[in-house]
Amino acid sequence: MTDDFVRDGDAATYLEDLVEGELPAFDHTSSGESVEFVGPHLRLSGTLHIGQFRRLSDFLNHHEGLIAVRDTTVLRRNGDPTKVTASSVWISPTEVTLVAQTSADEVPASAPELRMVKVVRPLIVVTPGHTLTGEIYIAPEAEISTFIESADPLFVPMTDVRTRSLADRRVIARYPFALLNRRHIVAATELLAGMAPGRRVL
Asked: What is the C-alpha separation between 149 and 14, in angstroms, rounded?
């Protein structure tokens, strides 16, 4: 890894430098979940096939190895699409901070017999590339400290997620639903009264 890469922190710039002319077009007809992958140095959108799993969270928390993402577009740090596209890109889930669901459909609900009563707890998280706020769902009797310290699930479902890039504070994103990689949590605490996630991300 070069010093320039560390300083800039955005793979999109370097990937675009590899493109000379027009890339071959590919068929944008893949069915599956429309997702966005966000990491410290790479952001891209595409389609993810989750197979027999009902939910994106189940797929990510049971998948081993690299993840194949179809119909991908590399994004700039601010979310703008670049000219770098590919029919398939394989991503290491260990290097991804957030996997956000971007399709218009709501997140599939659990089967009625599997539904559990949970309460919403707002959280502030610092990762290697971002600060973020969002809501997690835990059992009413559970302690938030126990949830944060736990290693399971590996990808934590969150709603109303707001992120701010540490490399460029002007870059703010919002996702109605995203999965946070526990391995990328540098620090976390509960959002307390008096803090205003709707106006800014710490």
From this structure: 37
